[in-house]
């Protein structure tokens, strides 16, 4: 199986040293600055006393996607689209600071203000357009008064084991000596994560009636794009007994799930 967890890795950002700094506080062209409200205020923000050393609160800047963001396990740049992320919720010490669009004004970063010399717990939760929870990072950060603390997000995908079941529409059992061919697409990240077919190294990898058990599959939206039961008539030829080339989709959002697709009798063709 060819999927990899979408763990963001920290690149050395081009131009980082060229950012303008004033009194140790980074100013970003497109970052959102969240001014701390009074403790009874809105938005989950809270006020902090100004550090006596300089009279200016420290800031905490969070990045979660390119060009500031990181890399997938396969080395490709990670972005909101490739990760299937629509929004990111930011929490500090358990208090939600806001939910921000992954694209748009929050694309380059979020900057929070009102921090001194302290350790804070930062949690980032990333969601798709249907509010499905796909990624999470929890990290302890040391902030500094009078300066900016920069954090590059490394959000691993939430994942769990997945069993793909199949059910024939005309029979509860498999024919003798048959095998399952199928393709499973991670529609959230537009990546085929599992496939067995005539061109596979082992086209007999899934004997019919055996389960298709996949481990640590990232949460998201999945599609079985094609599936069929085949029987070899010789070493190189086969016939299809059941097949469908019509995509069947489902959400994988919990560990240990079983998702079952339907396979009708063949109409005389093949999906591979």
Automatic annotation (TrEMBL):
<protein>
    <submittedName>
        <fullName>Uncharacterized protein</fullName>
    </submittedName>
</protein>
